Amino acid sequence: MITECPYCQANVDAKVIAFHESYDHENDPGPFRANLLECPACKNTLLAGQYQYYDGERDFWEDPTRVWPQPKRFLSWHVPELVRTSIAEADRCIKAGAYIACAAMCGRALEGVCRHFKTKSQYLGGGLKELLEGEVIDKRLFQWSQELQKHRNLAAHATDGKFSRQDAEDLLEFVVAICDYVFVLNEKFNDFMQRKAREADGKKT
Ligand SMILES: [Zn+2]
I need a surface site. Which of 23, 111, 178, 196 has the fewest CB within 10 A? Predict the structure, then answer.
């Protein structure tokens, strides 16, 4: 099983020692498999998780994500696919030292957020403003997203703009925080409020 070994700092074909499958129908998008692995080079222990998805034709296991040690960024499955792929790509760019490409991918992730909410503007700036006006994001997140947009523009055009690893990591953190807020926390809050409303109804009857 191909996974990244943080000790060797390389992708390795790790040996699967054992795996366990479970499926929490309420919280999992599909069956989950936890894999206990051994790095073939340094012999250290690794743990990687993966979900099974159905693509309309067949079931398939997604690429494993390391959950221990030093877990890779584990994005909630509430984050839509078109946003997740850009974030995963941005993550890979950082690892490869491609910081300008990472900034461009962070911008692409934001475009994905706009597309998910079906904003009308053809431009990212306009789309972000619509998200603010529609109260999908608040003023602070709007400010962060504007900064991301500025750097996306610098990255997308042949300018002298320079990006350090720190810049790229920060931009990625911002876009992940925006996604957490918009897709994960919002969802949780709505569920919470619905639960409370149901409980209140239950008490009345
Ligand atoms: Zn290793």
Answer: 196
